[in-house]
Amino acid sequence: MSSFWSVWITVITLFVIAACFILLQLCNKNHTDVEEGKSMGHSFDGIEELNNPLPKWWKYMYLITIVFGLAYLALYPGLGNWKGLLQWNSSNQSVGYEKGIKEDSKAATELAAKEGRYVQYDAEMKKADETYGPIFAAYLKTPLEELVKDKEALNVGKRLFVQNCAQCHGSDARGGKGFPNLTDNSWLYGGDLATIKTSIMNGRNGMMPPKGGLPIQDSELKALTEYIFTLNGREGDKELAAQGHASFMKGCFACHGMDGSGNKFMGAPNLKDKAWVYGGTRKAILESIKNGRSGVMPAWKDILGEEKVHVITAYVYSLSHQAKK
């Protein structure tokens, strides 16, 4: 936070607290000649205002809240860049979830521990690791083929998925535009246990340049779109699709295969199934071809660790495969 905003927040906060105290003092004084307990001469809806002092319990409670507020602001962060006398911090994650944990936050955590400062998030994570670490260590030693049959492990994997993966893939793992559906058994890089774990551990970077980086003219896009639209058996303009096939053979096949069935090694989608990451309408297909697509899935090995990724892998696999019992 800049010095200007730090000072601004500090001044405003202390001004409001001071104003509350002044208001209390003003309301606590009798500025009228009317005798205490007598009418002030005001009435509304049959209710008459009497000259009575503030209730002592209310006045003291008001004063206590002011003192508590000042003590809290002195001990804990809250006044601009003021760190607080206790040097307390809620978390070291200061630059975004993924980047912060892997870079700045880890360094900040180590520094806080070295200096003996208390960081609540770090303390909670340490306690959680001590409690649940042995459980996840045991899961890691269990082969994935066996873990997918463990209902308790799958429930743990589901909770981890909802906490970390649902933001993109949805709480039901059915994805959305630009985010793959993990329940349909259609996989860009493969749906076996080892490949799923590799995808989660190391992340994926998918990129298709505009027009696939090929010498395809704008005049060819409509025909190419029609060809791809009909690849999975949908009805379309056969003559236009035939023209589009010629454009497809200019180089699209290098990634998507001669028949459009994709390439899991490259993460190139299968154009013959009904699983469309960005939509399978003519409009969506044309947009994908013309402008290209790029998608990034972060690597989770440094964020969650292999133990948790191992459990999530079993859960994700179970979504599209019937585990053998």
From TrEMBL:
Which PANTHER family does this chain map to?
CBB3-TYPE CYTOCHROME C OXIDASE SUBUNIT FIXP
The entry marks the following residues as binding heme c 1, namely C165, C168, H169, M297
Kindly list the places in or outside the cell where this protein is found, as annotated in its UniProt entry.
Answer: Cell inner membrane
Pathway field of the UniProt record reads: Energy metabolism; oxidative phosphorylation
Q: Would you tell me the protein name for this molecule?
A: Cbb3-type cytochrome c oxidase subunit
In the UniProt record, the gene name given for this protein reads ccoP
Q: Which InterPro entries match?
A: CcoP_N (IPR032858), CcoP_N_sf (IPR038414), Cyt_c-like_dom (IPR009056), Cyt_c-like_dom_sf (IPR036909), Cyt_C_IC (IPR008168), Cyt_c_oxidase_cbb3_su3 (IPR004678), Cytochrome_c_Oxidase_Subunit (IPR050597)
> Which GO molecular-function terms appear in the entry?
electron transfer activity; heme binding; iron ion binding; oxidoreductase activity
Name its species. Parashewanella curva
Q: Is the Ion transport keyword given for this protein?
A: yes
Cofactor binding annotation: Binds 2 heme C groups per subunit.
One GO biological process this protein is involved in is:
oxidative phosphorylation
Q: In the record, what lineage is assigned to the organism producing the protein?
A: Bacteria, Pseudomonadati, Pseudomonadota, Gammaproteobacteria, Alteromonadales
